[in-house]
Design goal:
Blueprint (H helix, E strand, L loop, with lengths): L2 E6 L10 H20 L3 E8 L4 H10 L3 H18 L6 E4 L3 H16 L3 E10 L12 E4 L8 E2 L16 E5 L7 E10 L5 H9 L6 H11 L5 E2 L1 E3 L17 E3 L1 H6 L1 H13 L6 H4 L9 E7 L3 H15 L20 E5 L2 E3 L14 H7 L2 H11 L6 E3 L1 H30 L13 H22 L3 H22 L10 H22 L4 H10 L11 E5 L8 E5 L32 H9 L3
Parallel strand pairs: 1-2, 1-12, 2-3, 12-13, 14-15
Antiparallel strand pairs: 4-8, 5-6, 5-7, 8-9, 10-11, 16-17
Helix pairs in contact: 2-3, 4-8, 5-6, 5-10, 6-10, 12-13, 13-15, 13-16, 14-15, 14-16, 15-16, 16-17
The structure holds zinc ion.
Zinc ion binds next to loops.
Amino acid sequence: MSHVLAAVAWPYANGPRHIGHVSGFGVPSDVFSRYMRMAGHDVLMVSGTDEHGTPIQVQADNEGVTPRELADRYNRVIVEDLAGLGLSYDLFTRTTTRNHYAVVQDVFEGLHRNGYIVAKTTLGAISPSTGRTLPDRYIEGTCPICGYDGARGDQCDNCGNQLDPVDLVNPRSKINGETPQFVETEHFFLDLPALAEALGRWLDTREGWRPNVLRFSKNLLDDLQPRAITRDLEWGVPIPLEGWRDRADKRIYVWFDAVIGYLSASIEWARRSGDPDAWRRWWAADAEGKDARGYYFMGKDNIVFHSVIWPALLLGYSGEGDRDGDPGDLGRLNLPTEVVSSEYLTMEGRKFSSSRRVVIYVRDFLARYDADALRYFIAAAGPESNDTDFTWAEFLRRNNDELVAGWGNLVNRSISMAAKNFGAIPPVDPAGLTDADRALLDTVRAAFATVGDLISKHRQKAAIAEAMRAVAEANKYLSDQTPWKLKGEDEKPRMGTILHVALQAVSDLNTLLTPFLPHSAQKVHEQLGGTGVHAPMPQIVEVEDLDGGPAYPVLTGDYSVGARWESVPVEVGRPLAPPKPVFRKLDPSIVDEELERLGA
Ligand SMILES: [Zn+2]
């Protein structure tokens, strides 16, 4: 058994999440975590909502609420959505907790003490009418490089070049159209060049990373520039330095605070567990957590943060860059083992866009369809290694032809035939098993190794395809053996044997599919006469802030219970009732209905 950290991307709390978001980081990280737990590892799966930064400040201003009120609203929406999908976080928290503030400030101080944070004077834009800082992305103008008129202060979407707002020709505020004023302002920067060599050495030791991610990360090292980690903004974590702590106009940059969330959420989880140091088993680079592994799940636009910038922060905090230094108060910390990034999901051939209504929100989806139907689509056809298009026609086909007609049908006919003819799980008759019986049982048992290995290597598409291939074998077995024809009294023992074998296959296949389809796995477990928790589910719990801040909801759960990753013999004589279908067949008319909703 080893300690496995599943560090899952932090959704930004400025609106509900759509299925594109959860297909990238949410479902894959849950499938991985569930499997690793079932295989006996000690998993810590953490995340939360990312709640600071200018977009939330600006949106709150527009709505006439405080940023905290806005964040409260969407934190709750997102927590409910992720719970609805059955994502088994040990802790899903948020970045506005006092614990998070304290951990972020500790990391800032540690880096500062070691000399990896430097101060610089820069030109910042302010709005002449409000006196408030205008963030880069709210400044628009003409690109000085390609002449495109809609360039943003931080980047030109036409030529792709990174920009500084002061470079824009005819800069204007996207909020009210006025011309920004540029004033000198002091900020802190993370001295990435002083960490580049240590980063390079660490990247050289990475094994199993996708070659393009590794190459891309290494190429960045030569051009690393100091990166701003503070902003002119009131909404964020205060800067923990003398003379800065009490300034209301300067805050730690949202990217810096959010990426530390993996660590702060682990610490919060430990504090809530009653063993405040328990987080060290996943994080401490000394004896305690030396063998721990950390897997970071995110969309591909976030690779750089997790393969370069987050490791740089951790190296600097541990005192391992050009300037050396001592580990901060939390000690030397583990760097990521692997960065598991997904590609993009598009919707009916278009990019998801809330403003253009090319979107389906998680809660709207869950109001009309089952969570496992979406989880199945994401696992079987999601953007694991290629950009992938979600179409309603394909969703319908996968649900009806594979989930309902394949797996659902196998479950239903096996259990209902056994219930009707025996009322219980029948025994194997004394004549024993035939070659065909043994072949099916062997196929299904062998799948534990192959499916598990594929999930542990983040090849979930191949893993579920392998499980579904075994489902097809079991369906073929039933069709070949035709137990329904064995009606005579003398044929009944053979019928019982076939159904026993089929039910054993269903039970094992259900275990194999549990990481992907936890909701239906629990139902199948119960239809097989099982009791207790087979697939544990997350709970929403209202908690007090540990350090006196406002209360908030978290997602958490007891995942120590539930099925293990192994074949368990079915219990002869266990009563069976006629089953209800576990999956819903969808009417083809949903495709047109949904396309109409999309305005297509
Ligand atoms: Zn340009």
